[in-house]
Amino acid sequence: MSTAYETGHAKNVANFENLLTFISAYGATYNPSNPAIQLVALNTKAQEARTTAEQVNTHLANYNIATATRAKAFEPMQKLSTRLFNALKATDASKQEIATLKQTTENYKDAEHRQS
Distance between CA atoms of 82 and 85, rounded to whole angstroms? Predict the structure, then answer.
């Protein structure tokens, strides 16, 4: 990660594993009556959390690759949309048509900035 502090799912999984280490130190003293919070069940949940966190990381990497590829494919669209807008202004198009295209172009540029 590029930040100094780890946050999110990985941090939650790590904290859960720290809790399990703490609980394990109690040994036989830790014996809750609720089977959902017994050490065996919690260890199972920890393994599920690790597996799920790994899957999230894999899917996130694939998503980032797909997003970058799509952004690269649409890169030339900004210049093209500007040229189309200027060409439309040079014609005898109505003010409403020009305003519509201007709004569409601005929406596209805003969406492009949100992606980056």
Answer: 5
Q: What average pLDDT does the chain have? A: 87
Between 4 and 99, the higher pLDDT residue: 99
Burial status of residue 34 (CB atoms within 10 A of its CB: 0-12, 13-18, 19 or more): exposed
Query: Which domain, by its residues, includes 79?
Result: 75-116
Model-wide pTM > 0.90: no
One domain, residues 46 and 82: no
Same domain, yes or no: 62 and 79: no
Three-class DSSP category at 50:
helix
Same-domain status, 79 and 67? no
CA distance 67 to 7: 23
Q: Are residues 6 and 38 in the same domain?
A: yes
Report the alpha-carbon distance of residue 6 to residue 80 in Å, rounded: 41
Compare 72 and 18 and report the one with higher pLDDT. 18
